[in-house]
Amino acid sequence: MQDKSANTVWHNGLVSRLDRERLLGQRGGTVWLTGLSGSGKSTIAVAVEARLVAGGRLCYRIDGDNLRHGLNRNLGFSADDRTENVRRTGEVCRILADAGIIVLASLVSPSRVDRAMVRALHDDWKLPFLEAYIDAPLEVAESRDPKGLYRKARAGEIRDFTGIHQPYEVPEQAEVVVDSGSLAIDASAELVVAELRARGLIT
Question: Is 19 among the domain residues?
Answer without folding.
Answer: no
